[in-house]
Amino acid sequence: MMPQSPKPSCHEVIIGKWTPSDVDRLAGRVPGYGTVTNIINGGVECGKGFDANGADRIRFYKRYCDILGVSYGDHLYCYRRSLYIYIYIYIYIYIYIYIYIY
């Protein structure tokens, strides 16, 4: 249940307690199951377009949501989301541009 920085806790994401930062929003990371997938297996399934394994994961997720009688929520996919490693690259580029160009 504990987050592994810079990633948030999967638990906080899935129960709706996580609020994305501005950098998260720019990277396409918004609350939902897609962000949970990004946290757990993002290097394999996220940011690369459609992935059959990711689609299977979403089907299983939906199946268990149906069994439990709970909503799927929004933002189930991570096909277009940036991986967490890229957060540092975005920040570095932003700081570099701000310091050296402006």
From TrEMBL:
Task: Please indicate which superkingdom the organism of origin belongs to.
Answer: Eukaryota
- EC assignment: the record states 3.2.1.14
**GO:BP terms for this protein?**
cell wall macromolecule catabolic process; chitin catabolic process; defense response; polysaccharide catabolic process
Pfam families attached here?
A: Glyco_hydro_19
- Keywords from the named record: Carbohydrate metabolism, Chitin degradation, Disulfide bond, Glycosidase, Hydrolase, Membrane, Plant defense, Polysaccharide degradation, Transmembrane, Transmembrane helix
UniProt-listed PANTHER family: CHITINASE 12 (PTHR22595:SF79), CHITINASE-RELATED (PTHR22595)
* Name this protein carries in UniProt: chitinase
